[in-house]
Known about the structure:
By secondary structure, the chain is α+β, with helices and mostly antiparallel strands.
Amino acid sequence: xxxxxxxxxxxxxxxxxxxxxxxxxxxxxxxxxxxxxxxxxxxxxxxxxxxxxxxxxxxxxxxxxxxxxxxxxxxxxxxxxxxxxxxxxxxxxxxxxxxxxxxx
Length: 104
């Protein structure tokens, strides 16, 4: 019985000691890396950089690339893969039929 009480008192003492140490270190951020001030930052550290547009979107708007789409082809009489252009035209990939208007 004495061993059980002694073990319980020892476990409680250790728990209180750990709680006191944890409480004394709270909020100091010792588990985190110190934060840098803006004057200490270097490129590539995650700071917000000026907006750079998506190069694919720029190339699409300039008509340099085609986007994949599906649309009705009257030659095949079914929906087929099409290349969608920024000017609203589309081209059927299997038969190369060019269609004007907005792609669906």
